Amino acid sequence: MIKVKQKKMDEEQFFERRKAVLSLWHTGKEVDLEEAVAYQKSMPENKNFCKVIQKLKKEGKSVVFPRAGTPLVEDEIELVRALYDAGVPLLPCTTDSYTRHLQFEKVEQALEESIKSGRPKLNGFPIINHGVKNTRRVVESCGAAFNPRTSRLSNSLVGEIAFASGMTAQPCSFFPWFGSYDKTATLEECIDTAQYLARLMGWYAEQGVILTSDLHGWLPNGVFPISINVATMIIEGLVVAEQGVKSVLPLVECQGHLAQDIAAIRVTPQLLRRYLDRFGYQDVIIPGTAAQQVPLYAFPRDLGGAFGYVTYTCFVGALGKAEVVSPRSIDEGIGVPTKEAHVDTYRAANWILNVVRTQNIEFDNEEIQTESKILEAEVTAILEAVLNLGGGDIVVGAIKAVDAGVLDSPFPLNIHARDQVLGVRDSQGACRYVEFGNLPIPEEIKDFHREKVTAREKAEGRKMDYYVAIDDFWAISKGALVGTPRQ
Amino acid sequence: MIKVKQKKMDEEQFFERRKAVLSLWHTGKEVDLEEAVAYQKSMPENKNFCKVIQKLKKEGKSVVFPRAGTPLVEDEIELVRALYDAGVPLLPCTTDSYTRHLQFEKVEQALEESIKSGRPKLNGFPIINHGVKNTRRVVESCGAAFNPRTSRLSNSLVGEIAFASGMTAQPCSFFPWFGSYDKTATLEECIDTAQYLARLMGWYAEQGVILTSDLHGWLPNGVFPISINVATMIIEGLVVAEQGVKSVLPLVECQGHLAQDIAAIRVTPQLLRRYLDRFGYQDVIIPGTAAQQVPLYAFPRDLGGAFGYVTYTCFVGALGKAEVVSPRSIDEGIGVPTKEAHVDTYRAANWILNVVRTQNIEFDNEEIQTESKILEAEVTAILEAVLNLGGGDIVVGAIKAVDAGVLDSPFPLNIHARDQVLGVRDSQGACRYVEFGNLPIPEEIKDFHREKVTAREKAEGRKMDYYVAIDDFWAISKGALVGTPRQ
Amino acid sequence: MKKDKPTVITGTIGVDAHVIGTKVLSRALRDAGFNVVELGALTPPEEFIKAAQETDADAMLISSLYGMAELDVRGFKEKCIEAGLGDVLLYIGGILGVSRHDFEEDVVKFKALGFDRVYPPEADINAAIEDLRADLRARSKL
Amino acid sequence: MKKDKPTVITGTIGVDAHVIGTKVLSRALRDAGFNVVELGALTPPEEFIKAAQETDADAMLISSLYGMAELDVRGFKEKCIEAGLGDVLLYIGGILGVSRHDFEEDVVKFKALGFDRVYPPEADINAAIEDLRADLRARSKL
Lengths: 487, 487, 142, 142
Ligand code: B12
Ligand code: B12
Fold this sequence. Notes:
heterotetramer; A: alpha/beta; TIM Barrel; five-stranded parallel beta sheet; 18 helices; 53% helix; globular; C: alpha/beta; Rossmann fold; 6 helices; 5 strands; binds cobalamin
């Protein structure tokens, strides 16, 4: 029996749940909602994620949104300042893995060891252990708008502390949790968790503070067409809108094929708008579009390759006129990036974004048109199938769709996913389906994919299967878009 | 009285001049033409510049052609091997400045000091001092095809030694000498020098060895529309073709505005072909097109900016489908690049070239069309004016055109250039004329430039003059395309 | 005891969610003829031990990408010994530290923590499978 | 002797062809009210000395970008003294060494070679002009 529905949580129920959330760790006590609203309202526009992006859109600019977090407050301040000074007006606050799993005692221990050894022993900023007062110091240390990144278990408390500390955005994306971070949680549980944070953001919105939820969708854990990701992103958008979120930012995963990536950057916000409007969320703002370097492929470990991949993504994002571009750092394949690696990365990224956007380049061609049509048709078919399954309730539909394999993605971490689908690149590097599983892709579009896959099969004289998918997965780290057999 | 004409040197005269060339330094004695032809013919196709590029064209690939030279033979071997292993099949051999000025004794001294101090004391490879035997060791040390780079005074002897050592290309470009390297030489002297090397390459061609001359044209010493550069490149092509050169490679200077750069990459070889054919050089091959990062602008000195600029140029070159792309190294703004800097640069470049060319992206838009038309109209107008001045003789015409300012370029080093022209960028970063001097640009095209310049004038509220030209000159090194006033 | 089809345990340890590598590794081991008990991502150390006991495993091939492996495997070898698994081969691979560092440091560190073999990022799995066969043969288990 | 319009010599020394910087510098000096004798690129040391003698110059602002300045200016200060120009200020700027190196090394090196001031790559010319004024004032030449 599916209990979670597409329905706004009533205030009472919300505040009841809230008690449990805040009691997860003692810093929960530092959150005072009234005071937090006042604090939020006292902040200038450059601290608000939504407003910063709206302004970028108006001015036709693109900026970098990186990924960064380091355990100690003073180091984190140094890091965010360095990034801000390197021209980054939107900053994340990436939490560490222990925080993500509510292992706060372990965090304390690791913080101590980090101090002692002079080396970071956590892979992010433990915002919950640091609490509101300390986190405000980070937020106030530079002129950027902040957006914390964490995963399911800690999402609610991280949000409480982040917003009270002056951060103004946070993903309520339940599909990445399901597909990539949480092994045993059901989609229903993931949605339930996301609804809490969305309701909290809705509450802030009722008090006049617009917080933004960036939407991620089910990450394609491998080389895989982007339509499942976009469809699930739209599902997330509808779910958070129902809870009262007033600003959503679609985050488009760039997988390296320029025509596909530009098509996705253009089509995704259009489709998101269409579905938001259809269900009555006309007042939800889409301040802009974020294009991100898909966080999944093995990254080049050599300096040249790393800069090649980073700048390429920025080039695609800027040609697509995304307001926000998120490349990985040049240290992605190596480990948590050093401050210098961050700065060098974002300097390169800004060089590209600035130079490309100045030119206001119009870029369109047949491939982009084709990929746009394919993407739109696939996403629409998937969403309609989901709505059908749910009898009009998108939440119920999504939960059933995952069970039925109508929503599916390769290499999932979660034990409840079907894992019956697979993608490879075609000879030009576009992502195509080889195994459709139960995905409700229209037959003529399936034929399109089959044709492309067959063409590569012929060109390379080998079957397009799991092994090719793995070769393609490694390609980008080896300086290519299309994989070749590994020796 | 102009003595140099567009006329093939007769063999006798050529061999007479040759004596003087070879006697410039004792290693001239090492050149044995018969043996050199046999040596050239014994080399595989991958050693021939022309053939390598023809193959790239057929396969739809782009490769990097870097710039590199270090004084000691063993270091040079290490360097070219590292580059070749990083995926660079076309290699330069950049000579040092003393070689360029025939100061061979100083070279000897600097070589000794380089050995003693363990640090390079010359900014390139002194090919003349090293002679044929040593240089062959470099050529044979890896699978690349070689192309030496030097300047006027040493051009003839460098060519003699290079071709005898198995190198298969060399610029006979007299305009860069005139505009950027040689302070007092007249254009006539420069052409006279170039004709010698072209005649030598013609001689090799008669024996069945195709050597390639890359054409550079008058470098725009600053932000300046590319038409003078393209027109003078075509003049160079006609001049070397007359001397018997059978393969010419246009080298297009990318100045950072995508539509202009792509237009130039496309239009230049077309126009070159048209003029070669018109004057009867139908058998001269244009194996492909080289796109190079203009070697003139101050380069970003920070690692991120340097990679940004390098990779950007590679995108543009790859989108333009140039077979050869020449970025500067990431150390460009710092000093002669280290081996590591070279390798990192070309890894990044190859990442981009490979990924972009795999996709076979069709890219066209209104701006590219417009810039193509403007460029074609300007180049044609300039060339017709030059031919008129010369009464049909392109050499005579070019010499008179420089005197008349019909050929002119800003910031020339040469005292004989008029220096009455100036360029700035428009608000989108395209290069436009502000001072036309005596350039024979058609009136309606002048209006086009004026409009664009006025638009920027209005947008920025300042006059577009010399100071803006300087700001624009520095822009790219500061992470922008369009300059802002320096504090 | 010699086995036709040795049993190996795979998974990422602790709260590491990077599942792709261990999935790929597991399939390769299966293709190479091993009996693979695939625990997947986010596997607590205790579960590795339990699985090894239950399946009489010959080796554990542990992955960790997220940089915090050191904290996760402290005392693991000792617990294995306590559980009577002193003889089970322990391999670990992935990205074993946070931030830029020298892989050789990892080798020293994790060998001291009781691992038989330590693999660098992007390790070649075919070579690793050869190592495994050699080690099993040396212990007369193959 | 105090002058209204001090005379300065500019140019790149030796066989350095990088003319743009010295052109820009010359124009800025002129804009700032100096009398500029612009020798342009590729100027042999002897020519600098000749020009300074002929124009009774107060300073030479020498550029070198191509990395071989050290070899070009060896003995230059001594020749200036011989020529009775011991009192003429000597400035140098540009890219003073080949390949990556620390600018502080250049300062030490070129000061030892007799230069009064040494400027890093991309030096701010307005600041340099201020330096020049201060140095001239200190010598009661402005
Ligand atoms: C994909 C990815 C993700 C995906 C994971 C999807 C999934 N569920 O699997 C997502 C987006 C969810 C993710 C999340 C996070 N990630 Co992550 N991620 C990556 C990335 C890009 C690639 C990893 C990968 O899949 N490689 C490809 C697979 C096939 O290779 P592999 O895992 O290396 O395994 C191969 C070999 O190494 C070998 N091998 C592996 N294990 C073993 C064991 C043995 C015994 C042997 C013999 C061989 C062997 O065989 C495998 C097959 O060939 C890497 C960076 C990189 N390497 O490029 C970062 C990276 C691992 N992630 C990192 C981090 C910090 C995180 C997060 C904490 C925060 C965040 N960035 O969101 C969370 C962590 C969540 C958690 N609790 O663990 C860091 C780790 C930092 C460090 N070690 O210093 C990295 C290095 C990125 C970075 N530079 O910051 N990540
Ligand atoms: C443009 C350029 C060229 C053009 C020059 C055109 C011309 N005739 O002027 C061309 C293409 C011809 C060229 C040729 C060569 N170049 Co070149 N070139 C450059 C480049 C890209 C920019 C130089 C420039 O014009 N900067 C802009 C001007 C406005 O700035 P500036 O000269 O630095 O001057 C400013 C300040 O420094 C200051 N300043 C300068 N001098 C002084 C003096 C004083 C007293 C003061 C106070 C201030 C001051 O004021 C100026 C105005 O703001 C540089 C790399 C870079 N820096 O990005 C390489 C560079 C200088 N070139 C280099 C080399 C090696 C060469 C060549 C030998 C080989 C080659 N690459 O072709 C030949 C040399 C020919 C020769 N005989 O000298 C190297 C030098 C290596 C080193 N030092 O280790 C560099 C650094 C590139 C590299 N990394 O390899 N080059």
